[in-house]
């Protein structure tokens, strides 16, 4: 499992871990039932606090991405694709609200914002 921590990121380290593990689960690099590294092992590999790693795992468990078996470790949970999709849609909506606010502060119309998005998505196609 590859996790890269950026000390220059504004995102807290535990969130970086959560995001990267979620992305690996969603992209199926980590499959249902796969064992995750132990909290201590991951903390040692990333050279971070065990508390930070535990917080990341706790968040992932609360969100239903992983589950813990006492004495055995943490494992990738069965993916609820619809739940993951709904969470991502909510994030998109929040980002779009921020875009609308920033666009209004620059006197950009909805049509101009849509055109910017079209140009950007054409470059990513």
Automatic annotation (TrEMBL):
Keywords in alphabetical order: DNA-binding, Transcription, Transcription regulation
Domain of life: Bacteria
CDD domains: WHTH_GntR
Keyword Transmembrane helix recorded: no
Molecular-function GO terms, alphabetical: DNA binding; DNA-binding transcription factor activity
Domain HTH gntR-type: start-end pairs: 11-79
PANTHER family: GNTR-FAMILY TRANSCRIPTIONAL REGULATOR, HTH-TYPE TRANSCRIPTIONAL REPRESSOR YTRA
Protein known as: GntR family transcriptional regulator
């Amino acid at each position: 499992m590859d996790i890269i921590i950026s000390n220059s990121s504004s995102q807290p380290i535990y969130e970086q871990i959560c995001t990267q593990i979620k992305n690996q689960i969603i992209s199926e690099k980590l499959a249902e039932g796969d064992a995750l590294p132990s909290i201590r092992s991951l903390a040692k590999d990333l050279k971070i606090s065990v508390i930070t790693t535990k917080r990341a795992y706790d968040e992932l468990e609360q969100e239903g991405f992983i589950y813990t078996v006492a004495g055995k470790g943490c494992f990738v949970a069965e993916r609820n694709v619809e739940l993951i999709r709904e969470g991502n849609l909510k994030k998109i909506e929040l980002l779009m609200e921020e875009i609308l606010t920033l666009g209004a502060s620059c006197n950009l119309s909805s049509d101009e914002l849509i055109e910017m998005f079209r140009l950007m998505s054409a470059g990513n196609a």
